[in-house]
Amino acid sequence: MTTESVTPQDPSPAGAPSGAPEGQRKKPATARSLARTRRRKSAARFWRQYRAHRAGLAGLAGLMLIAALALAAPLIVGSDVQSVTNASGKALESPSAAFPLGTDQLGRDLLGLLLWGSRVSLAVGLLAAALSVAIGTLVGILAGHFGGWFATVTMRVTDWFLVMPALVLAIVLATVMSPSIWTVVLAIGITSWPTTARLVRAQTLAVESRPYIERAQALGGGHGHIMARHVLPNVMPLVLAQTTLLISSAILTEATLAFLGLGDPNVVSWGGMLQEAREAGAVSSGHWWYLAPPGLAIAVVALAFTLCGRAIESVLNPKLGVAR
């Protein structure tokens, strides 16, 4: 029995010298590495186009500053600022060096309350917008993909939610359920998804009319594969832009519910501060420092999210022609 000598093959790719050091040999690109490269290039291209929108940059800078202040609230003012027993000022004291924004009717520092309230208002806005977009995206993709009687029934339910005032429905839900932050999130998220559902359904119909969807179906791709691997990635830019626009309206709705006394009374929020200022008679007594800070904070955050959303929408859909 003869033993043939086997010459080991050079593992280096074609075109690379066989005697090259191992560190200099190019590794063959995998599908995962190519996907990462495409995502990095896409993100870099998105950021270059986004930077051209001065209003979007201003909104992003404002949001980053507000988010940083909200996260650093325990370090800046401490957690005792919310306590009534630890209040160190007089009731409804005007702005001074000790209290830059004055005090409330309980003698608490309004600057500290404003910083702590930003945490609740931002969290509720983000969570409610995420819930609303998730429901709208799911309904829109399912209705656009399956069509037929399912789409008809789904769109009629969506139209009913569109006709009904979202704020009234949110007030009803917040009244029926126990008062808490999660109640406010559910009330906002459940009542504000129809617009996203209609937009995503229209985009789904456009995506599924393309030839590569037919090829995927011919190769055996099922409903889940088509929706998850082909439709969802194509509607995500629209979903991202819609999310940024919904956050501002969610924050305004949360402030409205808290102003009406339907929020969580155990936490401090900007809407809750306005409601307490109204109960303390700040409007009639001229205590402007009690009303102005939370009201301006709500307006600034809503404007910042709107500017970011418009900029993102313009980058992802240049046909809109949004002014830079």
Q: Which properties best describe this structure?
A:
mainly alpha, 324 residues
Structural commentary:
By secondary structure, this protein is an all-alpha fold. The protein has a domain of 226 residues: Orthogonal Bundle (MetI-like fold), CATH 1.10.3720. The chain has 13 helices and no strands. Helix 4 runs parallel beside helix 13. The longest helix has 37 residues. The chain is elongated, with a radius of gyration of 27 Å. The termini are far apart. The N terminus is likely disordered.
List the helices and strands and how they pair.
Blueprint (H helix, E strand, L loop, with lengths): L30 H21 L2 H18 L1 H4 L33 H37 L1 H16 L2 H11 L4 H11 L2 H15 L2 H8 L4 H37 L10 H10 L2 H4 L2 H29 L8
Helix pairs in contact: 2-4, 2-13, 4-5, 4-7, 4-8, 4-10, 4-11, 4-13, 5-8, 6-7, 7-10, 8-10, 10-11, 10-13, 11-13
Strand content: under 5%
Return the CATH architecture of one domain: Orthogonal Bundle
Distance between the ends: 81 Å
| Radius of gyration of CA atoms, rounded to a whole number | 27 Å
Number of helices: 13
Main sheet properties:
none
Alpha-beta classification = mainly alpha
Q: What are the secondary-structure elements, in order, as H or E?
A: HHHHHHHHHHHHH
